[in-house]
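Look over this entry.
=====
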Amino acid sequence: MTPPSEDEQDGVGEHDAFERLWTPHRIVYIKGEGKPATGDEADCPFCLIPAMDDVEGLIVHRGETAYAVLNLYPYNAGHLLVCPFRHVADYTDLTAAETAEVAAMTQQAMRTVREVTSPQGFNLGMNQGNVAGAGIAAHLHQHVVPRWGGDANFMPVIGQTKIMPQLLGETRELLAAAWPKE
């Protein structure tokens, strides 16, 4: 992509070295549409999911203080979330037991996804607070996103389409079956 000439800029600002991809459809996410209304446990999806059966809730594994669940809006196939059962927003508010289990479960999620789908890498992360990108800031969750060379492409931006090679239920079944039984 070549930067616009001065004539093409037509008064839209000074030319700089940055190329830009405009994604105006993301404004819905930024404005918080479709997110829980109050952030209370009563409408928190991460508090409601554990009450569902594993298949319905897309739960891959349940521990003592935390659980692993497929992301309903995945960045990539096999995108898991590790969530404490307790409704807690900030990482520093986790108990020692919760911190240990979230960490151990994140490691096991990586091992399990590697066994099932052989990713070439991972993105791990927690977004703390709305301004940091937390979609549901009221309930802490750790992202475990498998990555492959070439997995980021033009389809989501240009075609507003995310290409997923497998249904979430099938992915959950494979990951749950591969997760070690305790």
Summary: The CA atoms of residues 8 and 101 lie 55 Å apart. The chain has a mean pLDDT of 84. The longest strand covers residues 142-147.
